[in-house]
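Hi U.,

Before I forget, here's the chain from the pilot set. I'm dumping it here mostly so it's searchable later in email.
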Amino acid sequence: MEIITLKGVVLREYPVGENDKFIHVFTTERGVIEISVRGGRKLNGKNTGGSQLFSYSLFSVRSDKGRYFLDSCEPIHLFYGIRKELERISLVSYMAEVIGYVAGQHEQKEEVMRLVLNILHFLSKGERKCGFLKCIFEMRFMTEIGMMPDIVCCPVCMSYISDHMCFDLLSTKLYCSDCFRGSYDDTQIRMGKSVVYALRHIVFADFNRLFNFRLSDKNMKVLQRLTESYLLIHLGREFKTLDFYKSLGID
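Structure:
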């Protein structure tokens, strides 16, 4: 039996019996792992704080044949504010389902953890709208796992910007209005300059500037449609948590 130490974010928890639970923890080193927490549901349990939902903690676990058992954990940051609104909880649930699905298919990187922690921070503080953070998560997450779109310039004429451009979700290419020869449909999205700049910002900006941009409500809806569709198409599946999030009517 191996004893290991990991830093991670608790994204899901499932009760077991009266006092125990399983938690799904997103870690940089091993992706999403399931940890058994004995006594984790006790109010005064020694590991209750660090193993609660949305906590970022240092975990000491025993690994035995692919199963993990918690010895101890020390909370690093507790994102209590997320619990204040159902919209925030539903967004994190969607993020958790996406990360859990991808974790076994792609090597996890520190940048993904940094992205998650930044979004949890803004959600906890209520400093950004859920729809804004969702866009950033979807497109930047896809970028960090190696599915970055080809949006530097038009692949035909090499034009960097035009009054309107078209993003082809299937080819991941961005065409200027003069070179686009398709018909705008569910996989080909027409957008103005502001949305193009916002899309490039999400993909290319350093983390210290990633969350610093604004769009009108109309342009934000275009960006939301684009990033959500891009993730769903290229991951090749639907997410029940996304359906619930959208049922809340969040902008």
